[in-house]
Amino acid sequence: MEAAAGGRRRRGAQEETPYVKYLKYKQSGFSVGPAGKTTVWIPSADADRVYDQAEVTKDDNKNFTYRTAEGQEKTLEKNEKNYMGVNPAKFDGVEDMGELGHLNEPAVLYNLKKRYDADLFHTYSGLFLVVVNPYKRLPIYTKEIIDVYRGRPRDKVAPHIFAISDTAYRAMIQTGQNQSMLITGESGAGKTENTKKVIQYLAAIAGRSGEGTLEQQLLEFNPILEAFGNAKTTKNNNSSRFGKFIELQFNSGGQIAGANTLIYLLEKSRVVFQAPIERNFHVFYQMLSSAMPAETKQRLHLQQPQDYFYLNQSSTFTIPGVDDGLELQHSLHALQILGITAEETQGVWETLAGILWLGNLTFEENAREVAALAGDPKALQYAAEIFGVPADKLSVALLSPRIKAGNEYVSRSLNKVKAAASRDALAKGLYGRLFNWVVKKINNTLSHPSKKAYFIGVLDISGFEIFEKNSFEQLCINYTNEKLQQFFNHHMFTLEQEEYEREKIEWSFINYGLDLQDTIDLIEKKPLGILSILDEQTVFPDATDTTFTKKLHDSHESHRNFRKPRFVANNFKIVHYAGTVEYETADWLEKNRDPLEEDLLNLFKQSSRHFVTGLFDESLMPSYKAATPAPVASGRSGSSGRQPQRAGGAIFMSVAAQYKEQLTHLMDTLRSTSPHFIRCILPNSEMKPGLVNNKLVLHQLKCNGVLEGIRIARKGFPNRHKYAEFLKRYYLLKPGATPSNADAKGACKDLIDHLIKTAPDRVKPDLVRFGVTKIFFRAGQLALIEEMREKLLSQMIISVQTGVRAFLARRLYEKMREQTISAKILQRNIRAFLELRNWPWWHLYVKARPLISQRNFQGEIDALQKQVKELQKQVDDLTKAQAKLEEDRRLAEEDCDRLQGDLDKSKARISELEAEKTDLEADLELLQKKVKNLEDELQEETAAANELLNKVKSLEESKTELELNLEDETKRKKEEADGRKKAEAERDDWKGKYEEEKIVAEANKSKGDNLNRDLLKAQDDIFEQENIAETLRTKLKNTEGALKQLQSEHADLNKSKGELERDKKKLTEDLEESERQLAENKAGRESANENVRRLTAQLDEANNDLASVKNKLSNTEKNLKGAKSQERDLEEQLEDERTVRGNVERQKKQLEGKVEELEDKISGLEKNKNDLSGQLRSLQAEKDDLSRKYDEAAGNAARYLKDKKNLEEDLQEAENSLEEEREKGRREKRRADQQVAELKAAYEAAPKGGASSEEVRKLEDDVDDLTVKLRSAEVARDDAEKDARQLALELADYKGQLEDADRNSAKLTNEVRKLQGDLAAARESQDGNEDSKNVLELAKRKLEGEVEELKRKLAKEQDARVRAEDSRDAGNRDSRALKKEIEALERKNAGTEREARDFKNKVDDIRHRLESEERAKTKLQDQLRDLRKLLLEREQVNQSLIGQLHTSNDDERRSLEAEVAILREKNDRLTDRIDQLQDEFDGLFKKLGDRKAGGSDDAPAAAAESAPAAGSE
Q1: What is the pLDDT of residue 1389?
Q2: Secondary structure letter of residue 634 according to DSSP
Q3: Is the pTM here over 0.90, yes or no?
Q4: CA-CA distance, 572 to 581, in Å (whole number)?
Q5: Active site residues
């Protein structure tokens, strides 16, 4: 069996698929750390490595000593930054970094490097998928890989962008909720490529059969966006210079139906400037390539890239490995597929060519710093020809644009720098509008809102970055990532909360999304957020980047996330989640305005090219409804109105406000989806494969929020297991526990209680939570339990090893003993042989032995040995057969135990299903009762709706009567209207005069603002007096509003009725479906019971007949699989039934909410009716008193008008002398400026009017004198402003409070009037047949309205008088109150600091305890490693000893064999010698027999003596 398995493994290795080869991590094998050594990460002296591993040689909990790789020993303070644990080798290359035991920066970095070295570029980190750019192509995005990930759960396959895409798609189909995929990272990290892979995967799994037109368009629109929005940078050859949100649309069947794209922050500045080694957008170089038709090149006068200023600044024109000609063919093909016509394509090339020719316009300036065109005039001619505008008008608009001064337009001459800036602004504006046009055309082709049922949004946007110089664009990007990180934190918090609530465990809820709110408020919150202050400063004509930075410092100097640099005045710092970033404010106001001269805008709107005029259609500009924009002035106009305008009066937004609006819309969209997070990492700046820059990668992990996400996860219960899994792994820790139990939760609780009793210092109850189906652990607790398990296993292994080693030692001893005895026997025999070999009698015995008959003992011994070997072989075979039978018996018993456990589980499951059935039946009865109640309530609501309809009809009749009365009242008020018109005309004259005065008198701006506020107050009072004439008209509008409201309520009731009927029908269908599923579940349970009974019978048969257990076991397994399948079906049916039950509950709650809303409305109407009846009686009593107060108010108003007139006269007298002098100076200066301008004109030979140079000098002297006076006035004004600023601020606050009170009072009055109108209408509907009563009620309502108006006006008049008299006293009181509040806040701050210090001390104590526990854990791990190493060493020694014994035995055997061979050889020689002696004896006897005389008697005697001697031997 093992051989077969090995064969299968070898075949699998030979057939290794790309998925296994390129996406699965291969462990290098088992490895054990050094025994008795502690290894940690420490900060490296080499900035490129960031961290180094070091061996700890001494640790006293405060400081530790470590040995470097060079052998040097150093000492450091022990803290979280210097002392970070190294994970064991089994954690190398884990697919999810959230599983790391030591979760720190170097551990995450090491794991990513380990996988990157193995060509694995996708790694999970909790909710994140981290993708490192490989800088090489691998076969991991093919159709075969798509098939691997199609429909597979994320935890069943290796990390991949396809796994996240499939998860999002399956979630959308199953839940019906829209999904989003957030792909972020810095430039060059691979965001664009991963976005294309997402689209590729979704088009493959959700496209129609075959490759249709829509699928082709989806794959081709991204290359178009790359051509127009991507460029070569120092980090990336195809860097996206804009953010995009691609909405992939799906129909109700899950098939892809279209796409829609939104763009953010296009880098328009790249059109006019590129840094060294970088390029402009790809489309420019494609247009100038050799693949462009010659006819088009000739018509557009196209040349080489080196000939255009907008392309030759970086001296980089090509990209290695990229053919711009082939890219052009691809772009043209994509434009054609997306339905862009040839005429429109030509318009695109014309616009791009015109932009290049605009860049070749050069400027020079004369001595008076007035710009003029220089260089080749063909650039202007070509640009004007391509854009379809006159060349002279284009030149004038660039050099001398007009601005609006008052009601007139005045030309102003630009210098060389400003003219070039105006040219660049035009080029950037044209390219930005062209890009918007391309995106809109793509969306018109791909987007099909009517077919869209769901969507998956793919966000491709730059990640958080920190550069040496960070500008306005970087603030916008970092602000976006701050919001996205907050969104991730909140989403992670939501998932954790849902998990804990689902498992019903106790924990303190912490919303980690609030951690970043302070920084977000610092950037966006009104009115003092950074973006709000930027918009405010953009309005002011005199504002500069310096004033903007100063106001930031003054407003946020005390903010905890705001920093003021020590040495750079025009910079500021923000503390983001990823680090502190210093921003330079140079050109922020200009970038925020994004100015485009009005003359240039109007000129291009009048172009003869239809395509060019279409680019200036305002519908091209993206619009979002998520936020209300704050309009900002362009700074070009002298007007300071509250709604700045462009040409034509259209309100526009600043860049900051527009981006904030886009971001708000994006976040609203993301919050409505289920998000998935992908973080792209740039491994190095050299764009080389296999190279990792540790410092760069670690910086990106911080900026992308990967480490932040892991930190948040570890604060909850990061380790969780199902009860059955936990029990199966850790049951060894409790004596008598079993790996499986019907009550797994109870068994786990008993196990934890046992551990708490036996090891209270390691397992603590507050670190463990028991959920419904899972057990949860705080960070580190499960690791301690795992250590206890490993320790127990180590003890068990040591015990087993001890027994095995004892057995091996005994067997070795017996073998060596037998060898010793054998050696002694051999030695004794050899010694005996050596003693006998030279004895003559031995020689005689040897020769005589063949003559003596004897048994063949050697043959018998050999036969017996052969029989022994055969018997031993039979014994071995029997032993193996017995072992096999024992193994089969053991497996059969295990299978029986497993079947018995499964049987118990099935019985428990059946009991649970029966209980759930009972609950569902009870819920069904309850739902039927609630449906019946809802039907009764629906009938009652229908009756109420009919009653309201009758009221509506009566109100319509009342409306007709009121209209007739209004006509009479209108005639009576005609004269008052004429007077009001006259007052309005006077007000308009005064306002125009005031605005004109404000433009020309900026030096006296503070005083003018104060006067303007007084004037606005006076005008408000006038308007309040005029509003009396509008009372009847207001009443009519209120009545109409009440009528519309009742009609709307009637429509809502009808709509609610229809919805209730639909809900009733749906509930009935759901109930029927639930009943059907209950019946099916019942049948399934009966089938399961039958299967269980059959399994029980089979189990009994298996216990009775063990000999046939194999056959019965296979049958039982088959039946068990069928039962499990049926059980899974039952679980799926039960899950569906739970889903239906949840839907019914949700619908029930919705219906109950609607019923409660209707009941609240009815009770509110009844309450309002009663309240209005009481108010009507009280208002009638106040009527006479308020009439008297109205007369007094009218007199006060007249006196106030008189005071206003006196104030204006005083103001005029106070400013007459100064204004006359200023007006005179301004007239003289304007006349001098006009004369100078006329002298500058090239076509004027002499100034008109004959003014001499002496007159000009005289005028200039007068202007200088007036300038000196104005400056002195400004100095005096500044001093006055300094004295009054504090009081003005306090007075403004006090006025704001009073205005709020006035607004609240007016709002309440309007509500009272509205309710009175409703009451009157209701009463008129009840008593419609009493005409006299209607007339009285109408008069009564008029009087009540007049009373309320007089009361409100009188209150405002009194408030105005009080404000005028007590402003200084109120300011002093407020100042004292503020001082007291400041002192209280200081005391509170001191208390807060003390609490913070106490909390910090507690945190330090906890950290020390955790460190001590970590050290104990590390020490135990070291001891375990030492034991393992010792065991390994002992095993090696035993192996070496066994090897030596085998070697010695072999040597001895060989030596004995050699000695036996020598003895045999000697035996052969002895045999030969005996034969020779025998021959000699035969010869001797023969000679003796031949003697005739009988020979001598000596020989026979000698022979007779020798014969007995030989016999005795």
Answers
A1: 61
A2: -
A3: no
A4: 8
A5: 187-188, 192, 236, 239-240, 463, 465
